[in-house]
Structures are given as structure tokens and as C-alpha cells.
Design a protein that fits this description.
binds nicotinamide-adenine-dinucleotide; single chain
Length: 251
């Protein structure tokens, strides 16, 4: 790709959940377009694999739910002007009254507090640097109620409004923030969500595919393309959007 086409040349970014799936694909795409990255995940082997495809990147093994870890990650490259928060889990797949308190707390610690901690430690650095662009990860399940993953849906709904609230308070400092809301995308998490259905896993997979207008699952590359666009200067007037990337599932 000619140098002029590199949308992120000279920029530093932090990607959480970079050790697998969508975070890895976004990291690859950003690195291919010139960004230097802090790759953050709790999975060291996954991080190594991603780092091999991201020249100049640095890695940190840590937990997004721990403020000290996020503070260290945010300080590894300076200035960070790109942030992607892809770390997340599905958590309990039971009706709300049956969710165990501990499982609820862990889900919200990763999906909601983990996103907030990344914002907490990166946004002030972006302000010092004169601005930046952020993409948080919610889900189609963060936009409408979900009977299969109700606790997950609640956590992703929180991510949507956390991001929109950030926009209402920090746009004047040069920061843009948007959320992607993927539908079913072919990653280890999607497979895990089917496996959670036990002996009805195949049925759940077929149902999920059949109710999508496109009749298929999305690819990580299709989500990464949307994330890179939202992070780029091409999206300079797009702010506070919760963008479904779902083949029309919520249409
Ligand atoms: N795949 C889908 O169908 C889908 C749909 C909607 C939303 N999403 C969201 O997209 C994001 C990425 O999902 P994915 O499909 O790539 O999943 P994935 O399981 O492939 O990757 C998630 C990554 O997050 C990391 N992670 C989890 N908890 C962590 C923690 N406490 N600290 C640090 N790292 C942690 C995992 O190690 C893993 O590398 C998630 O937020 C997910 O909720 C995915």
C-alpha cells in the first residue's frame, strides 16, 4: 500500500482483547496502516500470535478489570491517540433470576468496568495530546433485549451509553468516540456461545444463521473494516454512534 494511503501512520494505539478474534483483527489492520500499538490481553499465547503480525507493537499481559494494569498499558507508548476496547466475555447464559452473583460481578468487571478503566486511563492522555479516536465494543445484544444472554446484553447496553456519555463530555477536547455493535461474527467467542447450549448447540447455531437476513455469520475482517473507518479521519464528523455490523439482523 502506498504510504499516502496509510491512515494511521505515526499514530500510537492501545487495543484490549488483542489476543483473539476481533481485537486481533483490528490490531492487524491498524498495524498494517502504520499504527504502533500496545496489545493488551490476559492470554499471553494469543498476544504473541497477534504481535507477530503487528510490527513495532508492544505487548502487555493483564486484566482489563484491574486499574493498575490499564494504567501501565496506557503509559507504554506515548502519546496514545487511538483506543479500541475489544476485551469481553459472554458470561452466564441463564435467565436473569438464575445468574449467580459472582458471575454477574465478573461479567460487569470485564465488559463494563474494563471498558471504563481503559477510558479512565487513556482519555486524559488523549486530552494532553490534543485529541484522539476511540471505538468501544458493544454488541447487537447491547441495543435490544436478548433472552439467551440477558446479563451480557445488560453489560453491552452499558458500554453504548458509557461511550455516548463520554462524547457529551469530551468532544471539546478533540476526542471522538463510537461503538461497534457486531452481530454473530465467526470468532472463538461465537463458538463458545453455541457450546453453552450443550446438546442444543447445533440447533442454536442454525437458528442464529437462519434469522440473519444475510443467512451467514460475519467475518472479523468485516468488523475490523468498520472499526478502522470509525477511528480514521474519514469519520471526522461521526461521533457517539452505536453502529451495528450485523448483516441486517436488527433491521
Ligand atoms: N464474536 C461475536 O459474535 C461478537 C458479537 C458481538 C460482540 N462481540 C464483542 O466483540 C469483542 C471481541 O469478541 P471476540 O468475538 O473477538 O471474542 P474472543 O473471545 O475471540 O476475544 C476476546 C479477547 O478478550 C480477552 N479478554 C477477556 N477477558 C479479559 C480480561 N479480563 N482482561 C484482558 N483480556 C481479556 C480474551 O483473552 C480474548 O483474547 C467482545 O467485547 C465481544 O463481546 C463479539
Amino acid at each position: 500500500m502506498p504510504r499516502a494511503a496509510l491512515r494511521f501512520a505515526g499514530r500510537n494505539g492501545l487495543v484490549t482483547g488483542a489476543g483473539s478474534g476481533l481485537g486481533r483483527e483490528v490490531a492487524r489492520g491498524l498495524a498494517a496502516e502504520g499504527a504502533r500499538l500496545v496489545l493488551f490481553d490476559r492470554d499471553p499465547a494469543g498476544l504473541e500470535e497477534t504481535a507477530a503480525a503487528c510490527p513495532g507493537s508492544v505487548m502487555m499481559v493483564g486484566d482489563v478489570a484491574r486499574g493498575a494494569d490499564m494504567a501501565r498499558a496506557a503509559a507504554m507508548l506515548s502519546p496514545i491517540t487511538l483506543l479500541v476496547t475489544a476485551a469481553g466475555i459472554i458470561g452466564p447464559t441463564t435467565p436473569l433470576p438464575e445468574v449467580e452473583e459472582e458471575a454477574w460481578d465478573r461479567l460487569f468487571a470485564i465488559n463494563v468496568k474494563g471498558t471504563w478503566l481503559a477510558l479512565k486511563h487513556v482519555v486524559p492522555l488523549m486530552e494532553e495530546a490534543g485529541g484522539g479516536a476511540i471505538v468501544t465494543f458493544a454488541s447487537g445484544a447491547g441495543l435490544v433485549g436478548n433472552p439467551v444472554f440477558p446479563a451480557y446484553a445488560a453489560s453491552k447496553g452499558a458500554v453504548v451509553l458509557m461511550t455516548r456519555s463520554l462524547v457529551t463530555g469530551h468532544t471539546a477536547q478533540g476526542i471522538r468516540a463510537n461503538t461497534v455493535c457486531p452481530g454473530p461474527i465467526e470468532t472463538p467467542m461465537l463458538r463458545q456461545s453455541f457450546a453453552a447450549a450443550g446438546n442444543r448447540a447445533v440447533e442454536r447455531e442454525e437458528y442464529t444463521r437462519a434469522r440473519n437476513p444475510m443467512g451467514r455469520f460475519g467475518t472479523p475482517a468485516e468488523v475490523a473494516a468498520a472499526v478502522l473507518f470509525l477511528l480514521s479521519d474519514e469519520a471526522s464528523y461521526i461521533n457517539g454512534v452505536a453502529l451495528p455490523v450485523d448483516g441486517g439482523r436488527l433491521a
